[in-house]
Each structure stands twice: as structure tokens, then as C-alpha cells.
Design goal:
It contains 4 helices and 17 strands. It is of the alpha+beta class. It has 2 domains: 1-48 and 130-146 and 195-284, no CATH class; 53-128, Elongation Factor Tu (Ef-tu), domain 3 (Beta Barrel). The strands form 4 sheets. The protein has a 7-stranded antiparallel β-sheet, with no helix packed on it. Strand 3 (61-63) and strand 4 (68-72) form a beta hairpin. It is elongated, with a radius of gyration of 25 Å. 27% of the residues are buried.
Length: 297
Amino acid sequence: MTTFAILADRVQLVADEDERHGGVAIQYLREVENDFIEKTQCTEKIVTIDTEADFTFNIVAVSMINDTFSIAGDYTDIFIEGKSLTVENSTANDGTYYISSSTYTAPNTVISCSTAVPDATADGTLTLDPQATYALPSDFCKELRVEWDGVKLSPLATGEPYTIHQNDGISEYTGTPSNYWIEEGVIRLLLKPSSHGIIKIWYVYINTDTSSASPAIPSDEHAKLVNGAIARMCEFCGNENRAQYYTNKYDNDIEDTFWKYKNRRNKQSHVTDVNDVESGIYTDEVRTYGFDSGFGS
């Protein structure tokens, strides 16, 4: 397997004849790799989100006085104001509760509810109710396909108006999701799920491991990172003509690799009709059309 160190030697042979910038060469290679991934979409993995099992926790403490449930670990980013949870298999607390806040007091997350907690027995489980939004993996770059319970979802087209909330401006329309969009590390489902399900996402991933010895891209693409790194190194060293020459070579590598993987995926059933639409974020301000009651059915 080719390592960043080996690739850096190749970069220095061309762009850094005095061999004064070895560490910079590896830095450029790491930067170029993720640029290469974003432009060619040459990596792929799958993440599965179980909206029930992945968000179910054992109750470790209860307070009737403060109307709180406690669970082990820090989950304050999940249990936030306005969301709801369901308690099951408890002595006398089964039911739905609305969250007013949550705080982490090691080693537990304490979830405060606006709904009264009737019993002090710490047993049973709590599950975050189905949500419209779910966090994506930290290495997420671009989706290739999204499914809800095995059915492909369609990306929302930029600029189209969609209505999320009902007439009260607060309650969301719920049902079976048929569409989605992605923004800032979060996938947003439309409709908001009315029951739990499985989200499955095929996606292009970047290399987030800054200590990895080798690139994450397929091994037969490793050498293509060298041209991009040489271009950056030459620019760093003030050799503009050579920088432009290797930038052109790198751009050609990107073009060839993009179509290589594009054509390959078009032959794979799971990513046929992959998302070529730029997903956008939509606010109620741009949703000027009425909600179709049959949408998503």
C-alpha cells in the first residue's frame, strides 16, 4: 500500500529540490486527497440509522420533584427542547413526555420534561420519538442514495417551495418520508416520520483521520494526488509556471476519475439515478404554495 510518506518523496523530487519542506508535502497531500474525493466522488460507504434502536436508553434515575429522567452518557445534543420521548417497560411512567431541556452531569444526561413524571422508580427505557432531522457521520461528503425502510427517497430540488408546518406554524406534517435534503451535516426528512424506521444512506466520504499513514481513496488513484500536491508545493515555493502545469495535469486526473466512477455507479442497481440535484435548505418564508394532503402517500 502506498503511504503519504512515499507520495511526499515523489512530490519533493519535482517541487522541492532542496528537500526543505517534507512536512508540508504530506500536509498538501492530505488536503489534496479530500479535494480529490469531493470532485471525483471516488469513495463510498453506507451508514444505517435505526431511529428506534439507536435512540433507546435505559433509565438510570428519575426525579418526580424535578420531572426528570437520567440516562448514562452525554446525549445533550439529542434531547433538546421541543422534542418528545416515549417511556416503556417502567413501573408507572410509561407514556410520552415533552422535553424542556437536558444537561450533562457526569456520568449522566439529565432530561427535564414539561410533562409531569408520576413515579420515582428508576426502571424501563426511554426512546427519542421519530424526528425530521438526523445527524450525518463526520466523514460525510455527498449522498449517493437515501432510503427509508428500503424505499428510495428523492432529494428536494433547490428553489422549490415546500410546506413543512401545519396552519399553526408549529406542528409538522407527519407520515412516511418520501423526500429529503441535506445541510450542514444533517439530513432532513419530508415528511417527518410518524413512526420509527430505518434510514440507509450510501455516501461519498472524506478522510478525517489526520494520522492515517495512507490515503483513504482506492489504491489505484493514489498517484493522482501527487500532481495536485506538486502544484501546491510549486506555488508555495514561488514557481508559478510549474504550479500551473501540474494544476492542469491534476484537473485532467479529476475529470477522468469523476467519469470513471460516475459510469461505474450507473451500472450498479443501488445507486442508479443517483442524486445529481444540489440539495438546498428551505425555510417557511419561501414555502408559498399550499400543502398537498396527498403528498408522500
